[in-house]
Design goal:
about 30% helix, Rossmann fold, alpha/beta, about 30% strand, 15 helices, six-stranded parallel sheet, six-stranded mixed sheet
């Protein structure tokens, strides 16, 4: 039987996911077998496990920090928004169906057996479980039949740590308001408060810490500074994509689609010296990059219409036709590059839509979702990206649609699919335009650097200083740094005592 502790927050983006990952790393380094758990996650960024099951990327990051293979046991319910009113509901890694918010609110308690079955399996196979909540536990309109915050804490009999973001102001009001909006028994479950994203002299903060402790009768066990640590953030509020970046020697522009998913696919480019990775949503922002990436999206047809109406489609097509800019589509972005998109079953918008017409292919959306991990290598390429030829990669496919290709060349060759040896081609290329269904295709050691070198060489710039980098090793270093900061700024002895005492 595992000991459990739960991390809740005063608001969305308070730092729950990162703090949970940090605790997982600290406990792992202390010799515990530790697993993360989040009963219900809402996100467009998802991952496919070795078993071909779908889960949220935040728990993947936490699993990596814990030194564990990601499993849907860690995230039994995933909600992927399809529009402002509804989501695709994924249970135990499989699609249950689409529901609007009202219907799901009525239905969700039926999923408690699934939640507890996953939790109990982790409970039997680990020493520690670090549970993450969602949003705030004080959303009084959602407290009835809650399954992700205090409702989950009660089911798991887990003591709670409350994380509060001081960077956006009003931290003491948010702590007091959160605690006071809970019932008396729920307040008693909160055993410690962590102030997150602090900038400045902590001594100036101490009088406020003492006062809030007196008002809510809960100790503040840590003040974590604003950390310059590079760990994947799946939250739609991620600051990474909002930063206005200076254009460098190699300029890569990712189109910031309204329903963009899995933007973590491109993080590796930010590690390469001389490469700028920008997220753009207007013609003025696009300018003249060396490479344009069309990312994945939860609604390809709706986002293609947005691309068309914004004028970005026409500008991308013009730059593609000039032959000077690489255009690379991933998953939904790949589907957009074709001649047509057909949706006979109403998976997205229904009907059909003309694509961008840059590649000779068409996509037909289907009810069946493709979910698989893959490994392979790039085809023998010519042109600007010839340096990518035969480089190996691994990643995963997750899409609802089949793409039929015409007079095209394959971008990659897949030799392992869901752990089995296969021989098949994947993706399409035509001169400077290419696309693939594979998420994570840039993460493998050597891929992103090879692209950067090719783009530097095209411009007549020296690329010899760029070395292959291991994104996996880099992430491990970041998890270790996060654990160091938590040990430095949080009373881990108090957390261990809370863990041991339970509720």
């Amino acid at each position: 039987m595992a000991k459990s502790i739960m991390v809740q927050g005063t608001m969305s983006n308070a730092g729950k996911s990162l703090f949970t990952a940090g605790l997982c790393r600290v406990f792992k380094q202390a010799g515990y077998k530790v697993a993360p758990f989040k009963s219900q996650n809402m996100a467009l960024n998802s991952y496919i496990t070795k078993e071909g099951l779908e889960m949220g990327r935040a728990q993947v990051v936490q699993a990596e920090a814990a030194g564990q293979e990601p499993s849907v046991l860690m995230n039994p319910i995933l909600l992927k928004p399809t529009n402002d009113q509804g989501s695709q509901v994924i249970v135990n890694g499989e699609v249950l169906g689409n529901m609007n918010a009202a219907d799901y609110f009525k239905y969700k308690t039926k999923l408690i057996p699934n939640i507890m079955a996953s939790y109990q399996t982790l409970d039997q196979n680990n020493d520690v479980i670090v549970i993450e909540g969602a949003g705030s536990p004080a959303e009084i309109n959602l407290q009835e039949d809650d399954i992700v915050n205090m409702g989950m804490a009660k089911m798991a009999k887990a003591p709670v740590l409350l994380v509060a973001d001081i960077d956006r102001g009003g931290v003491f009001a948010s702590i007091y308001g959160t605690v006071m909006l809970l019932s008396e028994d729920e307040r008693k479950m909160i055993k410690g408060i962590v102030i997150n994203k602090f900038r400045g002299d902590v001594e100036i903060l101490r009088p406020g810490l003492r006062m809030i402790e007196e008002k809510v009768n809960i100790p503040v066990i840590g003040v974590v500074p604003y950390l310059n640590i590079d760990i994947e953030d799946e939250d739609s509020l991620s600051e990474r994509i909002a930063v206005d970046k200076t254009v460098q020697a190699v300029d890569i522009a990712v189109i910031r689609l309204p329903r963009m998913s899995n933007f973590t696919d491109f993080n590796v480019f930010e590690l390469i010296p001389g490469v700028s990775l920008r997220y753009v949503k207007s013609m003025a922002e696009l300018k003249n990059p060396d490479m344009i990436i069309l990312p994945g999206t939860k609604n390809t047809m709706a986002d293609l219409l947005w691309l068309r109406q914004s004028g970005l489609e026409a500008k991308i097509k013009k730059q593609a036709a000039d032959g000077e800019t690489i255009v690379f589509g991933v998953c939904g972005g790949y589907q957009m590059l074709g001649e047509t998109l057909e949706d006979p079953f109403g998976v997205e918008e229904g009907g059909s839509l003309a694509g961008m017409g840059l590649l000779d292919m068409k996509t037909i959306f289907s009810k069946q979702k493709t979910r698989t991990q893959v490994e392979g290598k790039f085809s023998q390429l010519d042109g600007v990206l010839a340096g990518l030829s035969a480089i190996r990669f691994h990643g995963y496919e997750i899409h609802m649609g089949v793409t039929e290709t015409g007079d095209t060349e394959p971008l990659t060759h897949i030799d392992i699919e869901s752990g089995l040896q296969v021989q098949k081609t994947e993706g399409v290329r035509k001169r400077n335009i290419m696309g693939s269904y594979v998420h994570g295709i840039f993460d493998e050691e050597g891929v992103a650097v090879a692209i950067a070198k090719c783009l530097l060489n095209k411009k007549g710039l020296d690329s010899t200083s760029l070395k292959r980098l291991s994104y996996k090793q880099y992430k491990e270093q970041q998890y270790d740094r996060l654990a160091d900061e938590i040990r430095k700024h949080v009373d881990m002895a108090a957390i261990v005592n809370i863990l041991e005492a339970g509720v």
